[in-house]
Amino acid sequence: MGGNSALRPFAPLVGVPDFKAYVEQYPGTDLTDDALYYLGRCYLQEKEYALASAQFDRLLRDFPTSPLQADALLELARCDDLQSHPAPLDQTETERALTRYNQFVEQYPSHARVGEAKARIQALRDRLAEKLLLSGRLYRKLSKYTASEFYLKRLLHEYPDSKWVAEATRLLREVAARRGRTESIEAEKKNPPARTGQEPKGKPDERLRGVQTSKSPG
């Protein structure tokens, strides 16, 4: 079961119909797990990701002692990875792929494809970090500084190895400076200083609006 020995009996089988027929006709043989794996790979090549995932899922569930367990888990992660979206969009598939890649690396640290999985882990972590960066940047432009800080600090805490750390750090400093200016004017509104004859130009409300509506850099 599994391994290169499976290539000989499956040599004449060249695509989805053949492997699908084998799985349906021989659901419990020593080569059924191999057939499921190759059927999943065929669906993957045809970009039928849901069908591919179903084959790898079945292999993992029904054949726990198969030597193809590791490869099936990696291919399942790839199915999610290939369905994932750029950072501005929903990241459900990205997170699911990341979970499965991490599971693969933890369970099979000596597997020949661990390097491939680790490379994808870093790429997906960078994408999730970018998602947080985009949120932080958006809230900064909207002058929602507390929300902006929340997302930027999450990025630094959860993805300290991300390529976006330097950008997040820079934005966080800008946001902190802007928050300080805004809070200073708010405090002045509540507790106006004694008149000195050298009052700053403009009422506090007007100056606050100026801070909040000024164009953000970047």
Q: Helix-strand pattern, N to C?
A: HHHHHHHHH
Taking all residues together, what is the mean pLDDT?
Answer: 86
Helical amount? 55-70%
The structure class reads mainly alpha
- Shape category: elongated
Radius of gyration: 27 Å
Number of helices: 9
What's the story with the biggest beta sheet? Answer: none
What is the strand tally?
0
Low-confidence stretches: 1-8
Strand content: under 5%
Distance between the termini: 58 Å
Folded structure, characterized:
Residues 18-189 form the Outer membrane lipoprotein BamD-like domain. Keywords: Cell outer membrane, Membrane, Signal, TPR repeat. It holds the Pfam family YfiO. Residues 179-218 are annotated as: Disordered. TPR repeats lie at residues 33-66. Helix 4 (69-83) runs antiparallel to helix 5 and helix 8 (165-190) packs antiparallel against helix 9. The chain has 218 residues and is an all-alpha fold. 67% of the residues lie in helices and 0% in strands. The protein has 9 helices and no strands. Residues 1-8 have low confidence and may be disordered. It starts with 15 loop residues before the first helix and ends in a 5-residue tail after the last helix.
